[in-house]
Amino acid sequence: MTNAALQFTEADRLGRVAAVDTSRVLISVEEHQHMTTIAVGNLVAIQGRTTNEFLIGLVEKASRTVTEKLLIDETDEGGNIPTGETQEDFIKIVLIGTYRTIDGNASNTFKRGADSFPQVDRDCFQVSGPNLQRFMNLLSAKVKEGERLTLGHFIADESAIAIANGDKFFQRHAAILGSTGSGKSWAVALMLERAAALKAPNLIVFDMHGEYSTLCQGTTPTAEQYRIAGPGDLDAPDDHCLFLPYWLLNREEMLAMILDRSDDNAPNQAARFTEHVRALKEKTLTGLGKQDVLPTFTVDSPIPYSISDLLSLLHTDNIQRVDGAKAGTDKAGPWYDKLTRFIVRMNAKIDDRRCGFMFQPPQTCLAYDWLNTLLAQLFSAGDGKKGVKIIDFSEVPSDILPIVTGVLARLLYSVQFWMEPSSRHPLTIVCDEAHLYLPVRDAAEAAEKRALESFERIAKEGRKYGVSLLVVSQRPSDVSRTILSQCNNFLVLRLTNDQDQNVVKRLMPESMGGLTDILPLLDTGEALLLGDSILLPTRIRLDKPTIEPASATRQFWTEWATQEPKVDAVSKAVEALRRQTR
Ligand SMILES: Nc1ncnc2c1ncn2[C@@H]1O[C@H](COP(=O)(O)OP(=O)(O)O)[C@@H](O)[C@H]1O
Ligand SMILES: [Mg+2]
Predict the structure, then answer these.
(1) Model pLDDT, residue 382
(2) pTM (predicted TM-score)
(3) CB of 539 within 8 A of CB of 516?
(4) How many other C-beta atoms can be found within 10 angstroms of the C-beta atom of residue 39?
(5) Are strands 53-70 and 83-103 parallel, antiparallel or unpaired?
(6) Ligand 1 centroid to residue 182 C-alpha, Å
(7) Range(s) of the domain holding residue 507
(8) Which atom of ligand 1 approaches the CA of 545 most closely?
(9) In terms of domains, do 135 and 203 share one?
(10) Is 125 in a helix, a strand, or coil?
(11) What is the CA(181)–ligand 1 centre distance, in A?
(12) What digits encode the pLDDT tens for the residues 89-100?
């Protein structure tokens, strides 16, 4: 067949099959100079059962053994036996797919998985040059036009464009992993840019360092900018400020922030808190005449109430005295002085301006309908608003960061969950620096556990409701295993730490484990894409995003060499530190 993607000549022949295992094949390489052109990760094709069929594999290991042996036949007259060297070259292959020049009515087909085991002595060819180019293009062409997510170029052949299946990539959670400086933020910016080009994307980025704000600036921004209100925003918040008032928190989230579980009175404090919050929410509903909500709401339902009312109810409990046994006497009530510490802790949170986005929201945030406005803003594009939304969390104090991300993720998920199925528009939450708020469960504190629950629920059930996660982290070994193990696609950049590499290795199917050996060697912006969004696990050079995130690596030496010292920079920074606003 002349239009076959793979057409081999004798020059492409590497050797023959020497041994076959379940997923690995050992090839004996006859021409020793071939060994110099083989690299781990190269593609090879092994002749299948018919001339139309080739089993496609990746080189996992190349080895050479040199043995010395006595050449008895060549014993000289003095009885000396000369020694000779023999050299045996082997390459180990992982089988990953089957290519057919003709398959029924179709031609040039490739599918994952080896349909048959190769037979011993079958020829094995190197896939390189024009063969590689045609094969790579064949892989990309398999992705339907509308599903294409163009990421960059294949390292194996720079002329072939690497295209992933966008549906599969986002459908069932994905992760972008790599050491710091490996190019994660740029990869995220690239994906956001690709998504922004679609008609109605729906992505919400949890931006921990305000890196992606550049995408929202300039004449052609690709994203909509929001930020969790910082201490400096409280008095005059602008349109980009987001408040997450306390009444959005469910009981567990609120208690994780305020309750000290080691306090002897913790159970009393939690019980009074729950009772009063429920009553206050009921009061709100009654006042508004929400007869349809009243019978079924719970203490966790997001219904506004006044925090000062809550405090005064707790205070009343705390000082309450009841009639004593003898007439005319009184004694401490059931909660007398038991809530003091709880009230103090709560007041401390309320007064802390860094938590102002939660405890000192503008009056408008206490209106019943305000929540609709908030979520409609985050969900819908339209009105010239962009479908990619960046939320800057950089001013959120780190101790409550897990709660805040968790609350927002839970709200977004709940809205999708309760939405009419036909109205659901798929949503991806991009979790930048995920190790900061999605820690491994054993290491998690109370606050972090609450956040984990929200995200783990999305990881497990989100697919059904059209919510997925894109987890981004430099420390995969610190990120919740439950969440990572639900990811179906991994874009792995350079990863230097052993522990992190092992996590990635364990997430891969056993047969792919060997591929992860190249992770520490990847160049900046180079990645291994693994998962069902691409037919072959491939090494890719990622394109640069048009708008770069503000994450540029500082040129220490050059800057030291060239820059003038800035005189009042420090005093300005000190004042900003005092004010807690830039
Ligand atoms: N695809 C790419 N092509 C070329 N250079 C890149 C690419 N991605 C990243 N870089 C370079 O690496 C630097 C660090 O990238 P960044 O995405 O901020 O890393 P990370 O988020 O993993 O810490 C960037 O400032 C840029 O100079
Ligand atoms: Mg980064």
Answers:
(1) 61
(2) 0.86
(3) no
(4) 10
(5) antiparallel
(6) 6
(7) 163-245+361-549+557-577
(8) 1
(9) no
(10) strand
(11) 6
(12) 899 988 888 999
